[in-house]
TrEMBL record, chain A:
PANTHER family in UniProt: 2-OXOISOVALERATE DEHYDROGENASE SUBUNIT ALPHA, MITOCHONDRIAL
Claim: Transit peptide is one of the keywords in the record: yes
All residue ranges annotated as the Dehydrogenase E1 component domain in the record: 105-402
Keywords assigned: Metal-binding, Mitochondrion, Oxidoreductase, Potassium, Thiamine pyrophosphate, Transit peptide
Main subcellular location of this protein, as a coarse class: mitochondrion
Function of the protein: The branched-chain alpha-keto dehydrogenase complex catalyzes the overall conversion of alpha-keto acids to acyl-CoA and CO(2). It contains multiple copies of three enzymatic components: branched-chain alpha-keto acid decarboxylase (E1), lipoamide acyltransferase (E2) and lipoamide dehydrogenase (E3).
Enzyme Commission code(s) on record: 1.2.4.4
Name this polypeptide is given: 2-oxoisovalerate dehydrogenase subunit alpha
Organism expressing this protein natively: Dreissena polymorpha
CDD domains, sorted: TPP_E1_PDC_ADC_BCADC (cd02000)
GO molecular function, one term: branched-chain 2-oxo acid dehydrogenase activity
Organism superkingdom: Eukaryota
GO CC annotation terms, alphabetical: mitochondrial matrix
Length: 445, 373
């Protein structure tokens, strides 16, 4: 009798502990552990505001530490070899011209970055931010979109514009704030924008573009166009309240938008380990009810495939998708930052030597027989020449008329602003020698 | 950031209990108002009129806007069922749930979503439930909406964005249901800031804001929502932004205000005439930014005395801007120092509201002061 009881007890204990293990495995399995069978309470929760609720009769906290990390989708390995999944590859099989354009744009951006970075060091432009290491996220995603799709960016997405055909000179004109700048010299360098290319002008304020992009996506959906919006942001910006608003609005209001997070591990000096405690940005997606995927951001084909599929979901199902592209910020945050103050040269060197999106795509092209040392050298020289030529042209241009300081505050110039414009002009004319008038275009009368 | 308190105060259930039966919101018309409403008469060219309160006239404006412009949408917290103040009643049923829709409870999200709609070419009418809760959206308004056209070199703009929000004292709104934050927004180049004094004006100004190619904030004095009733044109009309209106002509003192305070000033003008024999000119500013300085200057050149009055706290309130500008432009005409009769430099406290407000007695004192200086 006693023995039987003990056996019975130990069985119960076993069941209990195995239940514990099951439940501790977390979110996905918890729903399987309901009230005991013998429980005569067949009640179901009826609380509004959540789907398919079940009761459990045992206290269990969901522990994110026990959750497996969301895996990183990739198509090719670090040597540019297409990897297989159950015997099949996910090579998008892009044609030679497209792949070469991808490579050209990534490397052209890289060359432009080097020259503009140096020009800032020489005091020729006031500020610059490079895209080193993240060229693959730009080109891979941009190539998967149509030109009708709208782009909202943060500031490190110049490759997207490059892909869409923004001329080198237009990049330079913006950085110089000269008379060729579509933005009329009003913003800091790298704050690009192009109406023609549906690339909404960058602003410095982090994450503000995110809920705006959701609103734009809503308007585009209502207009009936076959288009979506892509919104880029870094993992640091994802900590802003606007990111939360954006995800939530996009999901509840069924907006066709791709949220594309560049997780490059650093927000200036702050490593991502001090930015969040969860499983990156991707793990937040399902909390908002968004389709989500994490991709290898140094793999241009993985980025391409994910973005292309996301676009389909957006446009066909009118719902947002979150893509988190894992990458590494190879360069300094900006020209105002020396990243050696907070990270080791060895770490940077690892990424630079072992895994860059450019090298990976080059391997792929060489493997295909589409690229060689000779074509590489030829392209290097040509791209450098093109950048230098555009640079010199931009540098030679004058800055816009000082009059333009006052335009576009409102659509029409309001009387009080006109008055201030006239006062400024009169003042500057009186004190000509104290203002850099020779660098600016003349006032238009 | 609408607080839990406000959610409790304005839940639909509560509204049904206190709202529809007595046809007024629980925050409104509970205690005797600190002003007497002076109804307006609509210009005859605006056509046929109907008796409307401020809520109904706003509803009528939005109805016209949605009817004329298929891109126009209304978003905000609780707007779909008609809004906690009933300003959007019936519009969802008439125009569809994709055009009049609830947003999640996030002011920064509402304004930003509205900016995005406008950037992509839609007309966006965003509602912030109380002006007190507009501050979470301050970054989106000041750094984004206001600067969109400027910083993009006019490549992009969000001119089709209008933000509506109830403001001002309401008798017992305390700290977070009473604020008048217009001065914060008057410092933002690129925004237009508008405050109506009654139903006719509200409809005409709101239609102007909605059609304006610049982002606008309209602060609506919520105490007038149901207490201000007049014959409002049922058709389409608009009132230009940036233009003040001389409501009462006078020769001794100029008094400038906006919103509810205009009605206080009108009563003071009558009292001053009757008891002091002083002739006051009353100007309704209507638009805070860009504001109509010329109309004020013309008046002060004539009267030589100026009193500016608003509910918002005095220090750095909009009266400071007007006083400085008038001092610059009318130095030789001024017979007395410019007086500011404003809220005190405290938060807006609950039980002390009668002592806080710049009421008619404080204004009478100011009239005495400028005329006996």
């Amino acid at each position: 009798m006693l023995r039987r009881t003990i056996i019975g007890l130990s069985k119960q204990l076993q069941t209990l502990s195995s239940n514990n293990v099951k439940q501790c495995r977390g979110i996905h399995r918890t729903v399987g552990v309901h009230a005991d069978e013998g429980d005569d309470l067949k009640e179901k929760p009826v609380y509004p505001g959540s789907k398919q609720l079940e009761f459990v009769n045992q206290l269990n906290f969901l522990n994110p530490d026990n959750e497996p990390a969301i895996p990183v989708y990739r198509v090719m390995d670090r040597k540019g070899r297409i990897v297989k999944h159950q015997g099949a590859s996910e090579d998008p099989n892009l044609d030679k011209d497209t792949v070469i354009k991808m490579y050209h744009d990534m490397t052209l951006l890289n060359t432009m970055d080097k020259i503009l970075y140096d020009s800032q060091r020489q005091g020729r432009i006031s500020f610059y931010m490079t895209n080193f290491g993240e060229e693959g996220t730009h080109i891979g995603s941009a190539a998967a979109l149509t030109k009708n799709d709208w782009i909202f960016g943060q500031y490190r997405e110049a490759g997207v514009l490059m892909w869409r055909g923004f001329p080198l000179e237009a990049f330079m004109d913006q950085c110089y704030g000269n008379s060729g700048d579509g933005g009329l010299g009003k913003q800091m360098p790298v704050h690009y924008g192009s109406k023609e290319l549906n690339f909404v002008t960058i602003s410095s304020t982090l994450a503000t573009q995110m809920p705006q992009a959701a609103g734009a996506a809503y308007a585009i959906k209502r207009s009936g166009k076959d288009a979506c919006v892509i919104c880029y942001f870094g993992e640091g910006a994802a900590s802003e309240g606007d990111a939360h608003a954006a995800f939530n609005f996009a999901a509840t209001l069924n907006c066709p938008i791709i949220f594309f997070c560049r997780n490059n591990h650093f927000a200036i000096s702050t490593p991502s380990t001090e930015q969040y405690k969860g499983d990156g940005i991707a793990s937040r997606g399902s909390g908002y009810g968004m389709m989500t995927v994490r991709v290898d951001g140094n793999d241009v084909f993985a980025t391409y495939n994910a973005t292309k599929a996301a676009r389909e979901i957006c446009v066909k199902e009118s719902r947002p998708v979150l893509i988190e592209a894992m990458t590494y910020r190879l360069g300094h945050h900006s020209t105002s930052d020396d990243s050696s103050a907070y990270r080791s040269v060895d770490e940077v060197s690892y990424w630079d030597k072992q895994d860059t999106p450019i090298a990976r795509l080059r391997h792929y092209m060489v493997n295909k027989g589409w690229w060689s040392e000779e074509t590489e050298q030829k392209w290097k020289n040509e791209s450098r020449m093109r950048v230098v030529k555009a640079f010199e042209k931009a540098e030679a241009k004058k800055k816009p008329s000082p009059d333009l300081l006052f335009t576009d505050v409102y659509k029409e110039m309001e009387p009080h602003i006109l008055k201030q414009q006239q006062a400024m002009k009169a003042h500057v004319m009186n004190y000509k020698e104290h203002y850099p008038l020779d660098k600016f275009e003349k006032w238009k009368d | 950031m609408a607080t839990i308190t406000s959610k409790m105060l304005f839940s639909s259930k509560l509204f049904r209990v206190f709202g529809s039966k007595h046809s007024c919101h629980p925050l409104i018309a509970v205690r005797k108002a600190h002003f007497t409403y002076f109804p307006d008469t609509a210009k005859t060219e605006y056509g046929e009129t109907s008796r409307m309160n401020l809520v109904q006239s706003l509803n009528s404006a939005m109805d016209i806007a949605l009817g004329n412009d298929p891109t126009a949408v209304i978003l905000g917290e609780d707007v779909a069922f008609g809004g906690v103040f009933r300003c959007t009643v019936g519009l969802k049923d008439k125009y569809g749930a994709d055009r009049v829709f609830n947003s999640p409870l996030s002011e920064q999200g509402i304004v930003a979503f509205g900016i995005g709609l406008a950037v992509a070419g839609a007309t966006a009418i965003a509602e912030i439930q109380f002006a007190d809760y507009i501050f979470p959206a301050f970054d989106q308004i000041t750094n984004e909406a206001a600067k969109f056209r400027y910083r993009t070199g006019n490549l992009f703009d969000c001119g089709k964005l209008t933000i509506r929000t109830p403001c001002g004292a309401v008798g017992h709104g305390a700290l977070y249901h009473s604020q008048s934050p217009e001065a914060f927004f008057a410092h933002i180049a690129g925004m237009k800031v508008v405050i109506p004094r009654g139903p006719i004006q509200a409809k005409g100004l709101l239609l102007s804001c909605i059609r304006e190619d610049n982002p606008c904030v309209m602060f609506e004095p919520k105490i007038l929502y149901r207490s201000a009733i007049e014959e409002v044109p049922i058709g389409d009309y608009s009132i230009p932004l940036g233009k003040a209106e001389v409501l009462v002509e006078g020769s001794d003192v100029t008094m400038v205000g906006y919103g509810t305070q205009v009605h206080v000033l009108r009563e003071v003008a009558t009292m001053a005439k009757d008891t002091l024999g002083v002739s006051c000119e009353v100007i309704d500013l209507r638009t805070i930014l860009p504001y109509d300085l010329d109309t004020i200057i013309n008046s002060v050149v004539k009267t030589g005395r100026l009193i500016v009055s608003h509910e918002a706290p005095q220090t750095m309130g909009f009266a400071a801007e007007i006083a400085t500008a008038v001092q610059e432009e009318c130095f030789l005409n001024l017979e007395a120092p410019v007086q500011r009769v404003c809220g005190y430099d405290t938060p807006f406290a609950h039980v002390y509201e009668p002592f806080y407000l710049p009421d008619k007695w404080r204004l009478m004192e100011a009239v005495k002061k400028v005329t006996s200086f």
